[in-house]
Amino acid sequence: MYSVTMIVALAAITVGFPQSTERPEAFPLLSRIETRDEVGQYVLQYQVADGTVVSEQGILKLTPDMTDNVLVKQGSYKYTSPEGVPIEVTYTADELGFQPRSSAIPVQLPVPEPVFT
């Protein structure tokens, strides 16, 4: 009985939400450049009519033990926030993970050590 009640409740909730089939308006692509080489390295750049600009490159880097390669990505993207603020982020993605840099990214300050007197 409990499972029937839950199914009916979920169905009622789903029916109550407006079902939109409209997709958000997409901005036209102004330019796009993509080049790749035979080993998988690449350069990708594109610009959208809303002012968004993306630039990324992937370069193979030899692993420390020199037995393999890892693809290191470096790039940037720029856009305007919904509040009208220009945002720019540069990043590297490598064996240390994704490392973004931007004045728009909050920085956590170190917690001071407690002082006992």
SSE topology string: HEEEEEE
Helix % is: 10-25%
> Count the strands?
6
Question: What structural class is derived from the secondary structure elements?
Answer: mainly beta
> Count the helices. How many?
1
Oligomer: single chain
Task: Tell me the radius of gyration.
Answer: 23 Å
Write down the overall geometry. Answer: flat
Mean pLDDT: 83
Note the beta-strand portion: 35-45%
List unreliable stretches of 5+ residues: 1-18
What spatial order of strands do you see in the largest sheet?
1-2-3-4-5-6
Q: Report on the biggest sheet.
A: 6 strands, antiparallel
Can you walk me through this structure?
With 117 residues, the chain is mainly β. It has a domain at 29-101. Helices cover 13% and strands 44% of the residues. The protein has 1 helix and 6 strands. It has a 6-stranded antiparallel beta sheet with strand order 1-2-3-4-5-6, with no helix packed on it. It is flat. The termini are far apart. This is Putative cuticular protein.
